[in-house]
Write a structure and sequence with these properties.
- The chain has 126 residues and is an all-alpha fold.
- The longest helix has 32 residues.
Amino acid sequence: MKILIGMIVGVLVGILAVALGIGWLVNDWVKPFGVIFLNLLKLVAMPLIFASLVTGVSGLSDITKLSRIGFKTISYYLITTVLAITIGLLLVNFIKPGNAFPEEKRVELLNKYAQDVEGRKLAVDN
């Protein structure tokens, strides 16, 4: 429940900040804490997953079960990936995000950021 309340408060603060014209303040002062939080989650999650896998494999008494567990794990991963891709493609084709975006604004943004893209291409090529 606390997470849901936090999400709602965050959305309301974001909407209020943009409406009051202080979106830059939120971006400059709140965003870094969000980035730090996500990086800390990654820092904890990866070793935890690795340790869980190592503990699970080392705890198997019968090594033949490992192939069956591996097959089930890979199958589960593939099925959920295909399901996620299917849902994503269906939603994007049904909702068609970006169609309501004004054409003149799209051209303006393309021109504005085209130099950044070219600069990054040159940096990658070198």
